[in-house]
Amino acid sequence: MNSVMITRVGETQWQAVTRNLIVGHGDVSQRPDGRLFVSIDVWQDEVFDQLAAAMLADLTDPLHTLVGEADLDLKSRWEQAGFTAARREREYVLPTDPSETVVDAVRPAAGVTSPAGVTVLPAGEADEGLLRALDRAIREEVEATVGWQTMPAEVLPRPAGAMVLDPSKYTVAVRNGRYVGLVRVVPVRRRARIGLIAVRADQHRQGVGRALLAHALGSLHRAGIDSAWAEVDESNTAAIALFEGLGARRAGSTIELVRR
């Protein structure tokens, strides 16, 4: 193989070049919670190790990367670079059309309280202060039980004072004037992303999560969005049961690897 020159061409980018041809590049990006995720794309397998070594020499641990669970070769290469598996997530897809799911029976009509005593506030209608208080309370409850490592990767704890919350993305369940559950949905073209669904601990197994998802999916369907997708940690059996119970289709899985 010809000699390869690895160059950092920007704050977040590296290139591998041989004989004036680019044969690979690497990137690093920072998530809102401060974690650094690295990725490498190469045209020649032999270049991966050299590019990884150069990037890791420039960056400070901990570092993270995502790999499709079926891509055993890529997973092995990252492991050889010192990364280990930290979490596994299943990707689920839910159609928004009620004729294709089982959520129609629990879909609350506007103004109707269902389940008993619960009203669902559409996205953008929640009080921001009460929504922030609900978010904090749920984070504390989850951290005290299953831990935030079981929640979607992008909602792991953020540095103090850096919480970002956009009420326009949150649908909220209210019971007797108290905010008890939320779902965050981000519309993306014809498929939306369900970034988070969570319910206060004393409201579990009462249909609140199902009502929230039903309402969110109904809103997406009326907006012309065909499907929604979500990532669920494999250890979060309650969330898996919720999505599969509503007819979600498993579309794949990913492994998050970390080097500390």
UniProtKB/TrEMBL annotation:
<dbReference type="InterPro" id="IPR000182">
    <property type="entry name" value="GNAT_dom"/>
</dbReference>
<dbReference type="Pfam" id="PF00583">
    <property type="entry name" value="Acetyltransf_1"/>
</dbReference>
<keyword id="KW-0012">Acyltransferase</keyword>
<keyword id="KW-0808">Transferase</keyword>
<dbReference type="InterPro" id="IPR050832">
    <property type="entry name" value="Bact_Acetyltransf"/>
</dbReference>
<dbReference type="GO" id="GO:0016747">
    <property type="term" value="F:acyltransferase activity, transferring groups other than amino-acyl groups"/>
</dbReference>
<protein>
    <submittedName>
        <fullName>GNAT family N-acetyltransferase</fullName>
    </submittedName>
</protein>
<feature type="domain" description="N-acetyltransferase">
    <location>
        <begin position="118"/>
        <end position="260"/>
    </location>
</feature>
<dbReference type="InterPro" id="IPR016181">
    <property type="entry name" value="Acyl_CoA_acyltransferase"/>
</dbReference>
